[in-house]
Specification:
Mean pLDDT: 90
Largest sheet: none
Distance between the termini: 37 Å
Number of helices: 5
């Protein structure tokens, strides 16, 4: 299974960058009062990308040796990934006021940035690790 690692990682990283970019564009459009961020095609595309992202994360979790995650970085990353997706889904519901929506969008964006920082550092502290230096 390790022979598929480079391909799975490439798909996972591409899905992560696509998910973050699409989320940012949709969030900016929604905060600007546009209707297209809630369109069915855009919404289902986002769900599909996030499903690929989570599937890639789970596949990497199962094929990599467990000693690689001894400090808990991957579990923390996956927890932030679920938080990013959850906050993103909630932020796009129509019931929120613009202020509450902006807070949810900011929370999702911070979760995404922390996921990226954890992935780069292979440490559960992510960006905080570099700030402490």
């Amino acid at each position: 299974m390790m022979t598929f690692y480079p391909d799975i990682k490439l798909v996972h990283v591409a899905a992560a960058m696509t998910s973050g970019t699409l989320f940012a564009l949709r969030a900016l459009g929604l905060l600007a009062g546009m209707r297209w961020p809630r369109a069915a095609l855009v919404r289902y595309t986002s769900y599909t990308i996030d499903t690929v992202l989570l599937t890639g994360a789970m596949m990497l979790l199962t094929i990599l040796p467990s000693g690689m995650f001894a400090n808990g970085w991957l579990a923390t990353k996956i927890a932030f990934l679920f938080a990013y997706i959850g906050l993103g889904i909630v932020a796009f519901r129509p019931a929120w006021t613009p202020g509450k929506r902006a807070i949810l969008v900011a929370g999702a964006a911070l979760c995404f940035l922390q996921v990226y920082g954890i992935a780069r550092a292979h440490d559960p502290w992510g960006w905080l690790l570099w700030l402490a230096r």
